[in-house]
């Protein structure tokens, strides 16, 4: 199921399949239902994607002011692109690490997260289409799959970088985005981003939960391991301001991210 979603290129088709399989998984987990076995899969190194948007290096993606209507459309487009990547990231963690013995709750959590990302992508597409645009109408960032590639052999590295760094960053920036659309009177985008903001806390929490689970199983200090893995696999910067309240709600204490932000802001760091 995960590999089928990953190998579906069109965004709306990918998310429709994702939602259908998530519902099937959830139904199979009801008491008395026939369980779906966790199999083994050979997911592609790169998920299938539509021909559009054109993927550009971040420095080549045109910047638009969020104060303009065009800038707000570009912002929705950027979020849609992030959400589509997130759909693939959550199915990828399920398929790629199926050989690592994990409790069933691990699969429940990432299936639920994938289902929510699918909803988020569709919400962003609805907003884009209501504004006369659509996903694929402008270029998007290449390189969002880099974190998945870099951590393809390391489940703890994947958890550290994807939910606990990248998705946590979403908690920091989403309130500001909601404010932009509120000021512009774009109620549909405000409502959609409110849903995204509320649900993303859980994705970060799933990451923290399973990261701590694995540290406990191997008798490792979670904070030390987190710092080492982010240094090894994450190539961006951890930049304040942080949404400390939502990060705490998601099980991400300040001593996980502040030391990394401080060391990354030191001059001379390669
Ligand atoms: Fe999302
Ligand atoms: Fe998410």
User: Compounds present?
Assistant: fe (ii) ion
The rounded Rg comes to 18 Å
**Domains, number:** 1
Helix content: 55-70%
- Please report the first level of CATH classification, the CATH class: Mainly Alpha
**Main beta-sheet strand count, sense and barrel state:** 2 strands, parallel
Mean pLDDT: 95
Uncertain segments are none
* Spatial strand sequence of the major β-sheet: 1-2
Which helices and strands appear, and what pairs or packs with what?
Layout: H1 2-6, H2 11-28, E1 55-56, H3 69-96, H4 104-130, E2 140-141, H5 146-150, H6 155-183, H7 187-217, H8 222-233, H9 244-249, H10 254-264
Parallel strand pairs: 1-2
Bound molecules: fe (ii) ion (FE2) (2 copies).
Describe the structure.
The chain has 270 residues and is mostly helical. It has one domain: Ribonucleotide Reductase, subunit A, CATH 1.10.620. The protein contains ten helices and two strands. The chain has helices spanning 2-6, 11-28, 69-96, 104-130, 146-150, 155-183, 187-217, 222-233, 244-249, 254-264; strands spanning 55-56, 140-141. The chain is globular and about 50 Å long. One fe (ii) ion (FE2) is lined by residues 86, 113, 117, 167, 200, 203. InterPro entries: DUF455 (IPR007402), Ferritin-like_SF (IPR009078), UCP012318 (IPR011197). It comes from Pukyongiella litopenaei. This is Ferritin-like domain-containing protein.
């Amino acid at each position: 199921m995960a590999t089928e979603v990953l190998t579906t290129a069109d965004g709306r088709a990918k998310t429709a399949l994702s939602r259908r399989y998530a519902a099937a998984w959830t139904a199979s987990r009801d008491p008395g239902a026939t369980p779906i076995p966790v199999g083994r899969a050979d997911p592609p190194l790169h998920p299938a994607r539509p021909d559009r948007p054109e993927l550009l290096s971040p420095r080549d993606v045109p910047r638009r002011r969020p104060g303009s209507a065009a800038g707000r459309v570009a912002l929705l487009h950027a979020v849609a692109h992030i959400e589509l990547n997130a759909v693939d990231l959550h199915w990828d963690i399920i398929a790629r690490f199926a050989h690592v013995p994990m409790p069933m709750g691990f699969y429940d959590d990432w299936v639920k997260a994938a289902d929510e990302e699918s909803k988020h992508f569709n919400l962003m597409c609805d907003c884009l289409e209501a504004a006369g645009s659509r996903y694929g109408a402008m270029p998007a960032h290449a390189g969002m799959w880099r974190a998945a590639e870099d951590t393809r052999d390391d489940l703890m590295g994947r958890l550290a970088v994807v939910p606990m760094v990248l998705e946590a960053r979403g908690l920091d920036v989403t309130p500001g985005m909601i404010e932009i659309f509120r000021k512009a009177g774009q109620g549909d985008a405000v409502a959609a981003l409110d849903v995204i903001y509320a649900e993303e806390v859980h994705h970060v929490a799933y990451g923290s939960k399973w990261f701590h689970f694995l540290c406990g199983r191997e008798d490792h200090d979670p904070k030390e391991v987190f710092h080492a893995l982010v240094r090894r696999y994450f190539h961006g910067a951890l930049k304040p301001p942080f949404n400390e309240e939502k990060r705490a709600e998601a099980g991400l204490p300040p001593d996980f991210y502040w030391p990394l932000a401080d060391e990354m802001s030191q001059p001379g760091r390669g």
